[in-house]
Design brief:
The chain is an all-alpha fold. The chain is built from three helices and no strands. Belongs to the SecG family.
Length: 126
């Protein structure tokens, strides 16, 4: 149950980080505002949205990092518990050995001198 809660929080933090990073303006956007391009960031105060969004992004990143460590801890414990259970060993099955009587000798192939074909090379027609 705790592991599921950490996974849900981790996913929410990941989505929150994506949204916050996409909402933030680049460094070049501030230069346009200083030349009279409009009232940049008036919703978040006179300093703009840089401090609010960057602080909130840092908080979300810290929580995301903590949940990542928590998930790594859960994965380690899960792997150790599987190692303790162990896997059943199956005996190696060997192929049955053929009978060794005199009839197992392969027949010889006719050679090319006797009129037979050698390998996969087709005979030239005369």
């Amino acid at each position: 149950m705790l592991e599921t809660a950490v996974v849900v929080i981790h996913l929410l933090m990941a989505l929150g980080l994506i949204v916050l990073v996409l909402m933030q303006q680049g460094k070049g956007a501030e230069a346009g505002a200083s030349f009279g391009a409009g009232a940049s960031g008036t919703v978040f105060g006179s300093q703009g949205s840089a401090t609010f969004l960057s602080r909130f992004t840092a908080i979300l990143a810290a929580v995301f990092f903590a949940t990542s460590l928590g998930l790594a801890y859960f994965a380690k414990n899960h792997a150790l518990s599987l190692r303790e259970v162990g896997l059943p060993t199956q005996p190696v099955q060997q192929a049955p050995q053929p009978k060794q009587d005199g009839n197992d000798v392969p027949l010889s192939q006719p050679s090319a001198a006797q009129g037979g074909t050698s390998g996969d090379v087709p005979q030239e027609s005369k």
